[in-house]
Amino acid sequence: MPARVSIITVADAAGVSTATVSQALRGIGRMSDETRQHVLAVAEQLGYRPNALAQRFVRQRADAIGFLLDGEPDQAFHNPFWFEIINGAHAVCAEHDMTLVLLHPAMVAQKGGFDVLFQEKRIDGLLFPDTPEHADWRRTAMKSSCPFVALGQPQVPSPHNWVDIDNQAAGRFMYHQIAARGYRRPVFISGPADIGIGTDRWRGFQAAARASRPGTLGARLCAAASTTNAARETTVSALQAEPDCDVIVTSHNIIAQGALQAAQQLGHRVPEDLGLITFDSYPLAAHSDPRVAAVDMDMYGLGSNAVRVLLEILHRPDGHWPVQHMLHLYRMQDGESLPHR
Amino acid sequence: MPARVSIITVADAAGVSTATVSQALRGIGRMSDETRQHVLAVAEQLGYRPNALAQRFVRQRADAIGFLLDGEPDQAFHNPFWFEIINGAHAVCAEHDMTLVLLHPAMVAQKGGFDVLFQEKRIDGLLFPDTPEHADWRRTAMKSSCPFVALGQPQVPSPHNWVDIDNQAAGRFMYHQIAARGYRRPVFISGPADIGIGTDRWRGFQAAARASRPGTLGARLCAAASTTNAARETTVSALQAEPDCDVIVTSHNIIAQGALQAAQQLGHRVPEDLGLITFDSYPLAAHSDPRVAAVDMDMYGLGSNAVRVLLEILHRPDGHWPVQHMLHLYRMQDGESLPHR
């Protein structure tokens, strides 16, 4: 590797001070355009590369956003969307020449919390998924001085920054998709009633059904657990209780798998006798037989929007109102299980 | 936020020079134990936090490892293991107080390549998945001066650092698992023959079968594509050609889904008439009916081992032999589809 070209080498070759080189490179300071162009030309000719560590030290900015991750092994499919979220966040960071730093809760705790990471200039801001099982992350973040954006709407109104996908709107969208394809008697199979996302999706679905055709709306049945087996049992009961049902809507892929097994168990053909559609698209839907249609969520878009909001906050003065964005990031993904009637 | 406690504040309060404070904090320099303890006590009392940017600038180390990612939306399930790999890498970085920086190929290209990121002290080293579709990543990394570890064994011997899971050994392990459960006439259904992982798994499987029971070994059938539909068609042909087959081994979950559908289509009950087992465990196997047994790969372990190897390389002098590790990171995951006969 050739010797490193430093700011001193550039200053010597250009016949100016290191301060002038530094200012010329950063586009600041008082100097003639001619001088600035000369310095930039010399720097380029010599193959000068700025030292990112030096630049960050001078600016006292980490140029880094922390992303808090659970860090347990084998969890990719416990929350199959984290990779998409991180990927979207990462792409926007890259656009802005910033780093996405993955943070481990144990490491954050050992360091003394987000505040310390922020004060040590390891991160300029923070993202984390705000889920019921990680509510303490939000509480800790709110007490810290580190700017942050939570991914996920809190259960009760709260004065902090968050972005989320609007699951009620996605539920309304779902209703209109099945109505447009000619289905009239939906049954909605969800996981346990206390799962916020499923409940929001059902509320939107129900509201759209009520607004479209007063007096007739789908039934909702909640499985005891978010497992294939629980969903199969619940769907069997639902199909026996609602023999006129013409389409099953499920709150996610695992429930859809159970619903498909229940239909087969009862001798219903999907889609000839019964339509089937789910929220979210991951391999269970795409590789089932028949392929299950889905209202899919753009988790990549959620991650990239979260970074955009955080960058906006970092550039704003103190004392702002919280930024709370409900994003409409969903789309229809057709599948063999939901033909037009 | 209270005013930041600097190294100068600590020096003033302790009655020593800033150089002494700096050396005391870093555990270097000549001074009495008494002085060192005094400085550390004062620093702690004042709540001094080292400035990570300053420390990194002084040491000229980024304390960061780059991880090259494709960055396309919706790819989580094209390679469902990346999240696990990243998670494992991230955990070991955190243990060593290092950052895992996600890198976007477009961003790397715009910067002028890995060498520039390394020379600008943005990363100390690099990890990337070495797959056929990203062979140019390896070529570029090999030309750069940035230390790196590729995740994935190259197709032909090559003098660079890599780690991989030993798929031939996993294939042998698979054979012994089914033999131990009493199965005697396996058929192995894989995706296209040119997929390296599937071919390695088959070679190991075949070698173990040949060594265990000379003259009798499983047949292999390659589906035209790695899709459920192609696997279903291939499995139907296989079961018609090999009516004595007592267990189907598939090279991954999507193929397993097709094989399960084929068995049902031909009226075979799984597992009563026919056992089924797959390599890899992701939701298709866990949520199928019956639940499909698997030889699962520890991708979290692959990621964490890759970082360990990279850290080892960073601490070694130049001119070393390449580190090329085949890891034995797989295990049996029981499922309803493979009972003991």
TrEMBL record, chains A, B:
GO terms for molecular function: DNA-binding transcription factor activity; transcription cis-regulatory region binding. InterPro entries: HTH_LacI, LacI/GalR-like_sensor, Lambda_DNA-bd_dom_sf, Peripla_BP_I. It comes from the Bacteria. Keywords: DNA-binding, Transcription, Transcription regulation. Residues 5-59 form the HTH lacI-type domain. This is Transcriptional regulator.
